[in-house]
């Protein structure tokens, strides 16, 4: 019998074959006109969506309205640029977009781009003019912060007034921050010398600044901020506009069906594999300059040694070619010039922190992003040793069978923890957005005997059951799986399987994200006839081809996984998840698979009751509950006062709540968590890498959710 990976591969190959045949038929030309890239891209994308999407949509007026609404939301989410007359002009195309994409035209895209470009120029004039005059923060007026409650301005006068309030809000928030900073400095300056931190910078006799003086400085900062933002926006070119439009069309099928321009596909591959080809420097853009903020240990730039944090990159040359200036260039465009294939040389002209200029040649190499990969630690709690594994994502290198995979890495971490004689394990999937479906299946098999893990169904036919076929159990002791609202996709598959088998306890937010769909990525170049070679590359289409279901028959789509033990969570007030996204597929269920629950199933009710008592008596969790309720109230009250005294009072109240929580955290007994000795020994004397390894555990010492997970593990020992 074929393996799950083979079955999935055969399905993808079949879809691609259909896609290619359809493309040949679609592009059999009847005229001598040269094909345009934008026309070919949109038509190819629609063909792929029609033949391969799990729930294909009819390309009709309903489709057209969905594209219209979503595109306007994407290009002007805060309704700050387009006017009502602009919307009226665009509305003429509300039911015509389907006809345009079939004909290979894009009048709606062209008009919206033209209008948006003009309005951006208009708004640039507005904010620069408004910011020349001081704001009156004693006047009673307010500003709406929720885009769904905003409307497009009726005319230029209304737009100017809306921007005046927006700029006043931005300036006021900065004045408030400056007042806080001045109060902190005054407090430090008046504190006894012995109590001042050695690292604290105290300026003696620093002059007191009035709110009016701060307002002048704040307006300068706001002007600088918007000049930078508009500089970036005005660098958006036609291919980027087309990519945005193509992605909107894809997103109207479901939130996870996407168009990837070639550069975006590279970013996706980096996230999935935890590696890319380049020099290994983290960059940031500030004041029109590209600055080095950090170097990745072991990377090409780290080994070469001349590039340092704080250096400003002025020009970039590909080997011996003529350098290209990156000053004033948008960060992503500068990064695209610096990254490149392994073995190629890039020459960076940099300004050093001492003011000197240096040309630094670096041969690009594979850069490993260690933060992507699974890590483990041990927690000693009153003589009980608990293993901890953090899994940021379900990574896999689909282009290299010998590449790293999350299932293999978690297996290795379990082996190391077993050698440490841990008495229980906490697997942390919080904020793990998913990734490789096959790795989720293999990972479940590390904790259970062979059997079904997940059911995968296409739009037609019976579901395909993906099984763990290895009867060995890597780890059989007490297990707690931590999840939150941002645990999605493969995280939900693994959590659901552990829950259905009654193999461990799922703990965390009220529910996980709710992404229960399977995507495949198709390279559009592979589907194109040879006549289009001169206008490639086209990018890729990631589309939803299947839905997955728990072995109990229910889908995780839309609803997510509900934990066995629900803990108070600061994410609780956020409207995040699949159900809040645009055009999600709905929940349904199928027949359950045949499986046998774990013989040593944990006593969920008893463990939940014990956890509830601890949580109810925890001052930290009580405070979180109170903060969540106040956050919900503030989130629903979207009108913000533009009177400084009123705004300050609200901010100080929020800060007092936050300070109280921080004080409780500081007072709490820290978890005794540390990286594995074997891991630190392997890093040797490289202090940068050792510091990174210890930073991983340092941030977990005051994690109250992890502390409660450890307590639940101890209840089972």
From TrEMBL:
GO cellular component: a single term: outer membrane-bounded periplasmic space
Family in the record: Belongs to the peptidase S41A family.
Molecular function terms, GO-annotated: endopeptidase activity; serine-type peptidase activity
All copies of domain PDZ, residue ranges: 274-339
Pfam families from the UniProt entry: DUF3340, PDZ, Peptidase_S41, TSP_NTD
InterPro entries: ClpP/crotonase-like_dom_sf (IPR029045), PDZ (IPR001478), PDZ_sf (IPR036034), Peptidase_S41A (IPR004447), Tail-specific_protease (IPR005151), Tail_Prtase_C (IPR020992), TSP_N (IPR040573)
Lineage: Bacteria, Pseudomonadati, Bacteroidota, Cytophagia, Cytophagales
Keywords: Hydrolase, Membrane, Protease, Serine protease, Transmembrane, Transmembrane helix
GO BP annotation list: proteolysis; signal transduction
CDD domains: cpPDZ_CPP-like, Peptidase_S41_CPP
Protein's UniProt keywords contain Lipid metabolism: no
Species assigned in the record: Hymenobacter roseosalivarius DSM 11622
Superkingdom field: Bacteria
Listed name of the protein: Carboxyl-terminal protease
Membrane-traversing stretches: 6-27
